[in-house]
Specification:
The structure is a homodimer. Chain A is an alpha+beta fold and about 375 residues long. Chain A folds into two domains: about 1-140, 3-Layer(aba) Sandwich (Creatine Amidinohydrolase, Chain A, domain 1); about 145-360, Creatine Amidinohydrolase (Alpha-Beta Complex). Chain A has nine helices and 19 strands. The first copy, chain A, has helices at about 1-20, 30-35, 90-100, 115-120, 135-140, 145-165, 175-185, 250-270, 275-290, and strands at about 25, 45, 55-60, 75-80, 105, 125-130, 190-195, 200, 220-225, 230, 235, 240-245, 300-305, 310-315, 325-330, 335, 340-345, 345-350, 360. In chain A, the strands form six sheets. The first copy, chain A, has a six-stranded mixed beta sheet with strand order 4-3-2-1-5-6, with helices on both faces. A three-stranded antiparallel beta sheet of chain A has the order 7-10-11. In chain A, α3 runs parallel beside α4 and α8 packs antiparallel against α9 (about 275-290). The two termini of chain A are about 45 Å apart. The interface of A and B includes residues 63, 84, 115, 116 and 299 of A.
Chain lengths: ~375, ~375
């Protein structure tokens, strides 16, 4: 695996050199992890000005903690700061200045104003430039190693959800169902939940990001569940909606079929070269034309990887086109205030038609199950 | 409760006016919650330049989510931005400029360089100054309402831990014990765990912030547990170490007694007017003089409240003195690589001698229990 991280750092270095700042400071945790294999709390990566042999991961002093917990690239130098409370970014800037870097590109969308000032004050001769979202852009297209982590994460989420469906649901609270799902994710090998598990019953069903409450599952409810596993840092998402009891009401069947049609349209629009906004539109217009335009979420899906929400955004104003090997969610939903609603989410990997089209990672059935 | 939030904002406004910037932008989530009662994702508080009637909470657009989830001060104006992806801080700066604020004090330790630049570009005439950690300093001393939330949080953690001790432990994994503790916290009314529950067995015991693994509890192990409840946003911490089996080994008894003595010394040093560093020293020197100086954590305790780690830091180089009504943890520990260790943590509120001295919130016994 070490070669993978070295190659990623090499690509970033090439890009920095091309824009005139051969040294770079990466501070955003997911970016640090992507480039080194691990992201101890507060750690930053310095890409040295002269070449890869100067790359150093600066870690904060945390006695009792293993600073390199995770799968840190063992060929990378790791410097643990001796002073408690010292900022690794400041130490990195100091080192860059000592190595006579002309400029240092920093992540201005992550560094705070106060830390930025601290870098300037420790290395007043250093020209700080912006790295922009270079690492985030590099993270967009995943390699097969990354996709296989996502595939395992999705399998784990499918298993956890499948087991829950076999248990008695009526009478249990949203909070308990959410905690049980998270326990099952860990049982099946997840490092943890990918995000806070959402369970919505009755009037809460179909709400985006609903925080579980003490409401109990009742006969006739919609039950919507959204969960995901974190496997080696890679995070997937699955969302399903069920109906509780033997016979769904007509409005439930209609709403379910509508959201299902929107979700399918979104999935079918995934292909290399498809514009982000066109994927959004494919799903959104199904719900728009049924009169739900006002209540829709700003995105119909988003990229996943080391973060549960990363680029691309599948949104009306998003610029850009999908590439092969970009994993995304497709997750439309409708929520009717006071009544509840439906949300269906999958994680898929964009693949060319010749390879069979989009690869569905979350394979739990999307039939309307009556539980 | 609304008066409480208005009074807090009033104190902050007085401080800002005194330093020449009557308008302020609060973006750090715990600070926003302290001043408004709620902190919807991405929300920022603008303290208007002319007076409290101009205070506005700017929230990001999140259809399907209740933007004011929590206990938002109902007298506060709440503006939800219509455009998806718009930055509430930019909208607030725009409003401040429109209201002819001369300057706007911002939280430079929270705002990123990129957001700071976006504020300047939307309101080029606005002079951005630093608010510093004014809100964090205001949060140091808690009112009785806040302390009562912490007291309930501690009761919940004590209950969860007490129930765990009554169950069979041998053969269960650290991950399962941690998940069970978190489930019990929620069962007893917590909004969630205050931080990731740490369970360490055998060689993992006593490690600060140990992430639970699949190691199972064995006879003869030390078992150390660190958990806390979040109750209405307020977070407490309790840490205990137990021994598994009927008879602790001599080294276990000795190490336990040493850490217990250090923890007691730290607790007894808590009083209004005591220097932070003296509390640290009281606990630390017990472990230092037994030869563990090198392996100790950088702090022997810290403040708690809306964040699980807030000011003050009880550390060797910390400047400042305790006040009455400041809740802190006292949490020394020793970890022997390969063997395990002991960690004992309590949450207490500093009280004057006349009121009976420090108030212990986490009351689970600190005798060495053999389970």
């Amino acid at each position: 695996m070490s070669e993978v991280y070295a190659a990623r750092r090499g690509r970033l270095r090439d890009r920095c050199s091309a824009s005139g700042s051969p040294a770079a400071l990466v501070s955003r945790p997911a970016n640090v992890r992507y480039l080194t294999g691990a992201a101890p709390r507060g750690a930053v990566l310095l890409l040295g000005p002269q070449g890869p042999e100067e790359d150093v991961l600066y870690c904060a002093s945390t006695p009792g903690e293993d600073p390199a917990e995770g799968r840190l690239d063992e060929h990378l130098t790791c410097a643990v700061l001796p002073a408690p409370g010292a900022d690794p970014a400041v130490a990195a800037a100091d080192a860059a200045a000592a190595a006579r870097a002309e400029g240092l590109a920093v992540e201005e969308h992550h560094l705070t104003v106060a830390r930025h000032r601290a870098l300037l004050s420790v290395a007043p001769g250093l020209r700080l430039t912006g790295l922009g979202t270079a690492v985030e852009q590099q993270r967009l297209v995943k390699d097969e190693e990354e996709i296989s982590c996502l595939r395992i994460a999705a399998e784990i989420a499918d298993q956890a959800l499948g087991e829950l469906l076999e248990s008695i649901l009526v009478g249990r609270t949203e909070r308990h169902l959410a905690l049980e799902l998270e326990r099952r994710l860990v049982d099946h090998g997840a490092d943890g939940p990918a995000f806070t598990t959402s369970v919505g019953t009755g009037p809460h069903s179909g709400r985006l990001g609903h925080r579980p409450t003490d409401r109990r599952v009742e006969e006739g409810d919609f039950l919507s569940v959204c969960l995901g596993a974190d496997y080696r840092g890679y995070r997937c998402e699955i969302g399903r909606t069920f109906v509780i009891g033997t016979t769904p009401a007509d409005w439930q069947i209609e709403l379910y079929e509508l959201v299902f049609a929107a979700q399918r349209a979104g999935r079918e629009a995934l292909s290399p070269g498809a514009a982000y906004r066109d994927v959004d539109h494919a799903a959104r217009q199904v719900l728009d034309s049924a009169g739900y335009a006002e209540s829709l979420a700003p995105v119909m899906g988003h990229g996943v990887g080391l973060e549960i929400r990363e680029d691309p955004q599948l949104a009306p104003a998003a610029m850009g086109k999908l590439d092969a090997c970009v994993p995304v969610t497709v997750e439309p939903g409708v929520h009717l205030p006071g009544r509840g609603g439906v949300r269906i989410a999958d994680t898929l990997v964009v693949r060319p038609e010749a390879d069979g089209g989009p690869e569905l990672l979350t394979i739990t059935t999307k039939e309307l199950l009556a539980l």
